[in-house]
Amino acid sequence: MEIDFALFLLLQIVQIILLLAIASILLLLVYRKIVRPKSGAFKTLIVLGSGGHTTEMLSIASSLPAPLIDDATFLIASTDRMSEIKLRQKFPGAMVKKTPRAREVKQSWITSVYTTLIASFHAMWFVFMIQPDLVLCNGPGTCVPIAYSAFLFRFFLMQRSKIIFAESIARVKSLSLSGKLLYPIADEFVVQWQELIEKAPRARYVGFLI
Fold first, then answer.
1. pLDDT tens readout for residues 154-206
2. 3-class secondary structure, 159
3. Which residues, at least 6 apart from 150, have a Cβ–Cβ distance to it below 8 Å?
4. Residue 162 in contact with residue 134, Cβ under 8 Å?
5. 98 Cβ partners below 8 Å, 6+ apart?
6. Which domains does the chain have, with CATH numbers?
7. Terminal C-alpha separation, the chain
8. Strands annotated E in the chain
9. Global confidence as pTM
10. Is the separation of the CB atoms in 181 and 145 below 8 Å?
11. How far apart are CA 101 and CA 85, in angstroms?
């Protein structure tokens, strides 16, 4: 069962990367014909995962300096009502955007192939339109297509988004699945437990963020 899941996960990751790469090339062709001027304001994209991830990320966002949060856009899953409620309580006037989930709770792995593709293309278009200077995320799966879209656009020299991933405080001795997927591409990988440095040598230990 674990082998089947690992193989399925690997195939999904390869599929997403290939499709996003192809889509990035197509958008690059469009981008060269329609170059949209970027506004002078620093744009931060903050991805709210759900549940405890949302609580942690809102705590992190509250500690950000004004230039990083004033023009921030918060991205949540379209079915995640609780995160939107928490966000409105913390930042009443925040700019909120919604994205399809790659996989719902208890959704079968087979049907999640389709929903992952939809989420990936939506993420790609969303990042292309917003052109964030900073992508801040902490998992779970909602942030993976967003981060990889930002990475691929940067690879093709279309945007220069910096990606920061903050591992959840719940991860003490091992990285989360999102952390494992984003560790290779994150510009800064933050952990809240020093034990994780052994698993991710490039990570930066910052102590508790909440």
1. 887 777 899 999 999 999 999 998 999 999 999 999 999 999 999 999 999 99
2. coil
3. 45, 127, 132, 135, 159, 161, 163
4. yes
5. 75, 76, 77, 78
6. 2-34+41-205 (3.40.50.2000)
7. 36
8. 44-47, 73-77, 95-99, 134-137, 162-166, 188-191, 204-205
9. 0.81
10. no
11. 18
H helices present in 63-138, as ranges: 66-69, 81-90, 109-130
Q: Which two tokens stand for residue 13?
A: 């990751």
For residues 137 and 47, give the distance between their C-alpha atoms in angstroms, rounded to a whole number.
5
Sorting pLDDT into bands at 50, 70 and 90, what band is 2? very low
Q: Which residues make beta-bridge pairs with 205?
A: 191
* Paired strand residues for 79: none
For the chain, give percent helix, strand, coil, nearest 5: 50, 15, 35
Q: Tens of pLDDT along 6-63?
A: 555 555 666 666 666 666 666 665 555 444 555 568 899 999 988 999 999 999 999 9
Give all strands of the β-sheet with 134-137 in edge-to-edge order: 95-99, 73-77, 44-47, 134-137, 162-166, 188-191, 204-205
Q: Tell the residue number behind the tokens 């928490």, with chain if given.
A: 86
pLDDT at 154: 87
Of 166, 188, 170, 209, nearest to 48 by C-alpha is: 166
pLDDT of residue 1: 44
